[in-house]
Amino acid sequence: MQSIIKPSAIALLVIAGQTHAAGFQLAEQSATGLGRAFAGEAAIADNASVLGRNPGAITRFKQTAFSGGFIYIRPQVDIEGRVSDKFVTPVGSLPTGNKSADASDVAGDAWVPNLYVVTPLNERLSLGLSLSSQYGLGIEMPKGYSAGHFGNVSDIKTVELGTALAYQFTPFFSAGMGLSLIRGEGEVGGTFPHQDKIAKHLEGTGNELGWNIGVLLTPSEQTRIGLTYRNGVDLKLKGDAIGIDGQGQTFKDTGNLVLPLPATAEFALFQQLTDKLALHGSVNWTNWSKFVGLDAELDHQGPMHIKDENWQDSWRYALGMTYQVAPKWQLRSGIAYDESPVPAANRTISIPDSDRIWYSLGMGYQYSKALSVDVGVTLIDGKKVGVHESFTQPVRLPNGVPAQYQSNFDGTSEGDAWLAGAQLSYLF
């Protein structure tokens, strides 16, 4: 059975593979930042892409600035383990065996584009426009996967159209605020391995408004401090659902699923040490504790519980370096530690997540006073972690007898990724 909702044109712009910040958050707002592991991103403001992190920093541009590019994501997510299941009937249990539940490369490649335009309206007031993505996830298990009932597809796509205004109160202090129209699509589902029968499947689309604020402190031209906050929203996705009722019968319905998108905050510091060398760093916080679970409200069947999550707030720490090799050439590097928001007891194969370390390198070339090109590459090294899940679902056997389907998964998940990006920036 297939849902009748098809991907919209806007979702084709931003298709995320495995998550590359904690949970299903995306950090990939610019290729420039990618080359330094996004260390100090809310304070550096070396091109218009700073708008994706700190609206208060756009007052540094005294002429119209454009930045646009993309980041290519190549994840490698592997699942290893075994699944044991049985049918419990009024007359006894019917074990169906202990099977391998290995699956390799379950996250697809992705291209994440971004566009930013910043223009001064007068000497103190600046305007910014942006197109980017803050969240995304794409996990799909192979057809007939023996543990597919725990989750055979988790697909989240978002795109944000943003605008921001910033005001420079003094040479030391600037502040800005932005509004974003968030367009999201989501699909979650699980499929029984026997008869390839859907256990639960929901797919829908939705829109929501979000806001963000930021300040930039400039004690001197050698020192910049950025502080930002992005609010959390509850993105309501409306669409179609397939499930199994209390009698073990398959149904189709319509309804909505609320996807919690967390609040985030960043503290960033940039320090120019010499004419050629600068150090920069960031501390990021994400309010993942609001992601308690996934629950749908169906129009006819009522509440439909998808999965418990019970995540916790997470932190990210990044340190980077920029070195001016020559008047036209700049080298960047960075390292980051990204905490997983998923407690060990709540890990799932549908959102495989673990602590990870970023190793980043980047390069910029100043073609002219107006035009610059930047590239960056990152290796994300994720830990191998244990995953243990249990599943119970009422079903009806082929002979019509009602039963409880009980299943357990025990295994591991591991996710690494390569990211590569390119970006063009221009001053008008």
From TrEMBL:
Family note: Belongs to the OmpP1/FadL family.
UniProt main location, coarse: membrane
Descriptive protein name: Outer membrane protein transport protein
Matching InterPro entries: OMPP1/FadL/TodX
Gene3D superfamilies in the cross-refs: Outer membrane protein transport protein (OMPP1/FadL/TodX) (2.40.160.60)
Membrane topology: Multi-pass membrane protein
Organism from which the protein derives: Aeromonas enteropelogenes (Aeromonas trota)
Membrane spanning stretches: none
Keyword hit for Zinc: no
Domain of life, source organism: Bacteria
Record localization: Cell outer membrane
Keywords noted in UniProt: Cell outer membrane, Membrane, Signal, Transmembrane, Transmembrane beta strand
Any matching Pfam family: Toluene_X
Signal peptide feature range: 1-21
